[in-house]
Write a structure and sequence with these properties.
Largest sheet: 2 strands, antiparallel
Strand order of the largest sheet: 1-2
Number of domains: 1
Number of helices: 4
Oligomer: single chain
Helix content: 40-55%
Length: 61
């Protein structure tokens, strides 16, 4: 999740996220794309969230 985002803070997720079920979290994320850390790159054997140049370079895409 994008913990630095405005929507995350507006919803007060910092205080409630640890007590939420996966279904609740998926529902919240599905309802608002601003809660997803971007960019998000999904491959066969990896998932990269956020732009961390060293991790991206290590994949040699």
């Amino acid at each position: 999740m994008n913990t630095n985002g405005k929507k995350y803070k507006e919803l007060g997720l910092k205080d409630t996220i640890d007590t939420m079920s996966d279904d609740e979290l998926f529902g919240i994320i599905a309802g608002d794309g601003m809660l997803i850390k971007r960019p998000l790159l999904v491959g066969e054997d990896y998932v990269l969230m956020g732009f961390k140049i060293k991790e991206w370079e290590a994949l040699e895409l």
